[in-house]
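WP5 quarterly update. Target: GDSL esterase/lipase. Source organism: Rhynchospora pubera. Length: 146 aa.
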Amino acid sequence: MPVILTLFASSNKEDYEPDTGCLKEYNGLAMYHNSLLHQDVIRLRGKYPRVKISYTDYYYPTINVVKSPGLYGFIDTPLQVCCGKGGPYNFNISENCGMPGVSACPNPSAYLHWDGAHLTEAAYRYISSTWLDGPYADPPLKRLHN
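Structure tokens (predicted):
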């Protein structure tokens, strides 16, 4: 997320993933959190077998877009925000979307990030499809109703 990249920017290039431009430490934290969460969902299913519980993953569909934005119909600079002003990601913590002088891009559906902390409708549409039909939900949400 551009907000994380801005607030925790590093002058050490080794802190960044070469294929995404993301901070290794924060992506590692997200993957670790998701691993523990998935394990707990599995544990809860065993404890409450009559309850339908799905684990949905936000990280992997988002990072897939960051790695290969063109495959998903997004611009080639996926860490750039649509609505922002300044900074390397078109994001400035002091000048947020909706403030005077801060403008939005003409085609939000081409962007992954709306502002520094939220994705665009197009990004959420893609992520939700990976939860409804898989592969980033266990089980996919459409199967919970069967």
